[in-house]
Amino acid sequence: MARYSYYFYNAYLCFMYFILLMIFTLHIGHLFFKPNETWACATFLVPVMVRSTYDCLSSQQDRQTARWFLWNRYVVALLLLVVNFALPASNVIEEEYSITLTIIVGTCLMIFVFSIYEHAATTYHDFRLSFPKKAKLSSFQFCCLILFHILLVIAFLVVFRITPEYISTYQSYYNNQFLRIACHLINIMSIPLNYCAVLAWNCEKLNFKGIHPVTKRRWVGVMKKDKKGTWVVDVEPEDHRIFLV
């Protein structure tokens, strides 16, 4: 079951990235191009963004670290929040600031690709981490998560009710109608990412599997924090223990 969840979640991340990239390119097209040029912009920019992001990806180490495993869950949730508020903001402010915000959104999308690689952990052959099966949110945290997204819905309703007062061009007005749907869509699709971020916050132990650095055997176990706050292997199996005589 865990294997299917792993593939399903990574497919969801890739689909999420594709949706974000399309929203971003259409947003740029609505802001800086004529309506009939928008799809031409999207057709050109999407492959360029994907290719440039792929070229920026450097080779990763063989061992996944617990610190980055957890921080990656925090970062990706924050990225979606920044993108979701930067898109409508860039539509109403002055052009020079709008360009800056648009660049920030593009940078967030490039970082999102790194996050997908980290979630997939395809380059980690010697040591790969995952959440324990028993890891879950408390009832209070689950309610807070739902309340947070409800508040975001209300916030966007208020934002898009106010923004027409600051729109001076037809392109901005047309883009505002597009973003009204896009921001709510991003908010809904980001719920699993925020769920994982809270799960990472709760996490005191992590499962791992890989190859033992000394015996080179298949290595499966649990990591936990020691008294100093460092993540260490929790009770190494007998067949991997090295005794010095």
From TrEMBL:
UniProtKB keywords: Membrane, Transmembrane, Transmembrane helix
Keyword Transmembrane helix: yes
Domain of life: Eukaryota
Residue ranges of the TM segments: 12-33, 69-87, 99-117, 137-158, 178-201
Protein name (record): Protein CBG10326
Source organism of the structure: Caenorhabditis briggsae
